[in-house]
Amino acid sequence: MGYQHRIYKSKCGNCGTGWILTVNSWEKNTFLPRKFKCDSCGASNVTKRPNLYPNVPRVLYCGHERGRQLEVYPYPPECENSAWALPYSIRSFIYQASRQIGKCAYQWGGSTEVMGEPVHQDNCGEDPWHSERCHLLSGWIRGQSSCAMWEELKSYCQTLIEQRFLWAYLSLAKGRNFPMLLPQVRIGIAERRRPDFVLFSPLQYLVYKRYAVELDGAHTIERAVLDEARDMDLAAENYEVISLRPSELGYFSEIQKLVEKIAVEMTEAEKSAGELATEVENATFSAPLEISDEDIPF
Ligand SMILES: [Zn+2]
Ligand SMILES: [Zn+2]
Hints:
27% strand, 23% helix, three-stranded mixed beta sheet, 298 residues, four-stranded mixed beta sheet
């Protein structure tokens, strides 16, 4: 879902025809350079191999208290080459948060593949011989609705409603390869805005959609003007605001819609590869061998 799609577009060096080059893999690799043969003219092309990074911030700071913030990278710096450490995914976040908070001692326990997608084993516990499956990354299905890690982590949210929202989000996302809902992230170098949550929805390996999720409650008209200013500030940092209002039953149906929206976006690469493709130039091409009538041996 989403993270595994590599989509590039390149032009044939000989005739200029545009081609879409795709690779699906859960490894962390751009798979460049790519060799491709142009079906229009028969030329062989080899793309360049630029250093391409996902379009996500290099670091984020989470937490509403000035003196107590989590420093979060897209993936744990020491796990750069680990295939499970997807940019700002739930697993990448939990690994880093568990070390900074000092609870849970999250360890990736290996993975198997089911229907082309990895299924990870997530272990927690200070003592590696007595570790158990991580309750948080299991979405609370293993008999516990909290854990030492969650009790600390939730305090980075500003309100009780945000805590419940995040808990319910994790309960639906479970251990999937899914983006983390990052609480109280400070936006921009000057930290002008701090949305309730942000998330990075993977359209393909290199292209992420940035969302700021705001639990706006039942807002008044005066408040709407402030919201507009907020939305513009966030748009300047490339975040699209998802403003949520609770129904009588609270936010649960909004959380359901949010995870459905992300799940759909993560399949977008299968439908609109052309629009999501990253352009790469060609390093070399060799024109097809011209065969003239005289060369044909009879
Ligand atoms: Zn060509
Ligand atoms: Zn855990």
